[in-house]
Amino acid sequence: MNRAEMLERALAHREAWDVVVIGGGATGVGVALDAAARGYDVLLLEQCDFGKGTSSRSTKLVHGGVRYLEQGNVSLVMEALKERGLLRQNAPHLVSNLAFVVPNYEWWEAPFYGVGLKVYNLLSGRYGFGDSEILSKEETLARLPTIRTEGLRGGVVYYDGQFDDARLLVNMAATAAEQGAALLNYAPVEALTRDGHGFVNGVVAHDLESDREIKAAARVVINAGGPFCDAVRRLADPGLPPLVAPSQGIHLVFDGEVLPGGAAIMVPHTSDGRVMFAIPWHGHTVVGTTDTPIEEPSLEPRPFDREIEFVLETASRYLRRPLTRADVRSVFVGIRPLVRSGDAASTSALSRDHVIHIDPTGLITITGGKWTTWRGMAEHCVNTAAMLEHLPEKPCPTRTLNIHGFHRHAERFGPLAVYGSDALHIQDLIHAEPALGEPLHAALPYCGAEVVWAARFEMARTVEDVLARRTRALFLDARAAIEMAPRAAALLARELGRDEAWERSQVEAFRKLASGYLLA
Ligand SMILES: Cc1cc2nc3c(=O)[nH]c(=O)nc-3n(C[C@H](O)[C@H](O)[C@H](O)COP(=O)(O)OP(=O)(O)OC[C@H]3O[C@@H](n4cnc5c(N)ncnc54)[C@H](O)[C@@H]3O)c2cc1C
User: Fold this and answer.
1) 27, 181, 276, 354: most buried, per Cβ within 10 A?
2) Is the CB of 61 under 6 A from ligand 1?
């Protein structure tokens, strides 16, 4: 993916695109990928970087959602479990099978969760990840060596998927580009154009790098703005009532020693009636999440103190050594674009199903849903768009479409495993210039070649793009990320042809942003 070429295509395109997608998160990139793979002419515009919104800030689970089963939403769970299986099939370098243990401290928990998790696995049919099992106290401790032993009776283990959200997104964007889509980051859509009948027939975007205007006519415009989708809808009609009730969820990240056994903990009932996970991820431990209604979405949401205390307290109840603020390496926050419902008492009761909404202007908005279900959501959305706008009918091929980087044994690439087949090219960069193989920081497994790769082939434009989403340094260890920033900036400046003043301003901007991910 080359940004200059993408911009050129967007500026030079004279006729109407078949589909213009607004928003470069899981939903928008998924829609662009689906539409391009069918053979439609597609442009996607993202206001910031791909994945800057919620799609880099998830709990990193490719799952059916045990909680939704408890809420009785069997069809959502079955659909998500099928998508979980398809995603592992199409992106095996990024989706792995993870054991989750529900520790039991009460006599009734083993039979209760044992049966529930059997049903969960049964619903996945031929897309199963493994049978659940009841564990003795010793077996539970072998998988969770740091768990609180007082009163521990045993546990139940089940299996679900885990992934690197921002990396999958970048690989999906690359797949969409390979299928012919043009995708542009740092290009906010600032207006929607309308025809003589009032129907939306295109967008006006702003290229933030060249300060040029991009006018893109479209047969259909799809709004995948996530938590910001109402602001996009109001570009066409300022009086529209909101579709989305935003709610934020926080995650605290700790060292890997918190969960040394390789299994995750699932707490099925927190004091606020939700589930909480502690998950091993990239050598660290991610704990979350919360569900806190907020008034307005923002691109850099901040955690509330009560959310931090809640996560620390809940996790500490299950661990021998309580977790404190001083243990936190990073805190990150995502905003759920939940679809409003008149009678829901809280945002945690709102449905996680996706919604495709068509405004009187013909603007199609797709929102809600889950990362896991991006493919099915995109298929549904493009089917709707094709029908509505009389696009020639074309079948959806994404059920069996490999995602860029597809590799069945990527673990052999060690710290470069998440790149799948691209790891070989990154290794080539290191062979050509061995200094690029040196780690950028002793605490994290990232090297200079990854910065070069991100700039040349993944449209990374800023230090934040590289350290937050092309690598996950900021999410794993914010302090280490700040310390890596000068070297990342120097490499990026070399690749992008920027001067020292740019380098300094990038380091300063990143330091400011990353300090929001630190607690102490
Ligand atoms: C705390 C939390 C944990 C989660 N955990 C999981 C999980 O473990 N597994 C799972 O399956 N799902 C999970 N989800 C759900 C999942 O992350 C979301 O459903 C998904 O990421 C939403 O993607 P999106 O593309 O709709 O929104 P976003 O990722 O927010 O993308 C919307 C994009 O639109 C862009 N945009 C907005 N306005 C404009 C404009 N005018 N012009 C151009 N671009 C614009 C934004 O910059 C943004 O990048 C979680 C959600 C949260 C909040």
Assistant:
1) 27
2) yes
Q: Where are the alpha helices (DSSP H) in 237-282?
A: none
| Atom 2 of ligand 1: nearest residue by CA position | 58
Q: What is the pLDDT of residues 310-334, one digit of tens each?
A: 999 999 999 999 999 999 999 999 9
pLDDT band at 468 (very low <50, low <70, confident <90, very high): very high
pLDDT in tens, 482-500: 999 999 999 999 999 999 9
How much is the pLDDT for 343?
A: 53
Q: Is the CB of 348 under 6 A from ligand 1?
A: no
User: Are 407 and 93 contacting, i.e. CB atoms less than 8 angstroms apart?
Assistant: yes
- From the alpha carbon of 290, which atom of ligand 1 is closest? 1
Entry pTM: 0.96
Handedness of CA 59, 437, 402, 219 (dihedral sign): positive
Q: Whose CA is nearest to atom 31 of ligand 1?
A: 25
The best mutation among 52, 54, 276, 354 to test binding of ligand 1, ranked by most ligand atoms within 8 Å of the C-beta, falls on: 54
Main-chain phi, psi angles of 27, to 5 degrees = -70, -50
Handedness of CA 45, 47, 49, 53 (dihedral sign): negative
**Number of other residues whose CB lies within 10 A of the CB of residue 2:** 12
Residue 47 in contact with ligand 1 by CB distance below 6 A: yes
Cβ–ligand 1 distance for 224 under 6 Å, the answer: yes
Nearest atom, ligand 1, residue 48 CA:
47
The counts of H helices and E strands in the chain are: 16, 20
The predicted pLDDT at position 352 comes to 66
The residues, any chain, with a CB within 8 Å of residue 68's CB and separated by 6 or more, are: 76, 77, 80, 352
The residue with greater pLDDT, 433 or 70, is 433
Conformational region of residue 322, where left means phi above 0, alpha means psi within -120 to 50, and beta covers everything else: beta
pLDDT tens by residue, 74-105: 888 999 999 999 999 999 999 999 999 999 99
Atom from ligand 1 closest to the CA of residue 251: 1
| Closest atom of ligand 1 relative to the 368 alpha carbon | 19
What ligand 1 atom has the least distance to the C-alpha of 334?
53
Say how many Å lie between the CA of residue 173 and the centre of ligand 1.
15
Within 10 angstroms of residue 142's Cβ, the number of other Cβ atoms is 12
**Angle (deg, nearest 10), helices 374-388 and 26-38:** 60
Give the closest residue (by CA) to ligand 1 atom 10.
371
Sign of CA dihedral 6, 10, 13, 18: positive
Mean pLDDT computed over every residue of the chain: 95
